[in-house]
Amino acid sequence: MAVDTSKVTDRRALSFATLADVVVDAERIAASDRAGTLRRTGNWTAAQILNHVSSFMEFPFDGYPPELASPPWFVKLIMKFMKGKYLKGLPAGVSIPRIPGGTVGAVDGPIDLALARFKKAAQRMEKTPPAIPNPIFGPITHQEWVQLQCLHAQLHFSFLHP
Length: 162
Prior knowledge:
Blueprint: H1 19-35, E1 39-40, H2 46-62, H3 66-69, H4 73-86, H5 111-127, H6 142-157, E2 160-161
Antiparallel strand pairs: 1-2
């Protein structure tokens, strides 16, 4: 039975300053998953989380899937004014309307493949500013991209307890 992640109180308190910090935690998560000691308080496996967060790091370089590429104009307008709030933290339990499962990229699989993909995506995001604007916020700085990715990982990793 699926957990309403907006109501989960047993989450890790995380604060990632850099994507390198995120990679260190991802490695801890993967090691704990391999050892069979990882505890989850959300719905996704560690591999699903790593693949999901990787997807959102890859999209601004490789292109967004059609269901995310063109949000309605009113969503863009509202989110333009909420950018500052989202650059401070992301809420749990949010689903993207009209998308099966509420999001994309949460593919399960071997933890080592998910970790390798995640590390590659994080390294790319750390070194190179994305060329494709954010579909909701429009053009954002490289620093804002990195900050969003750290916050996104922070949100999802908080449900994993290595």
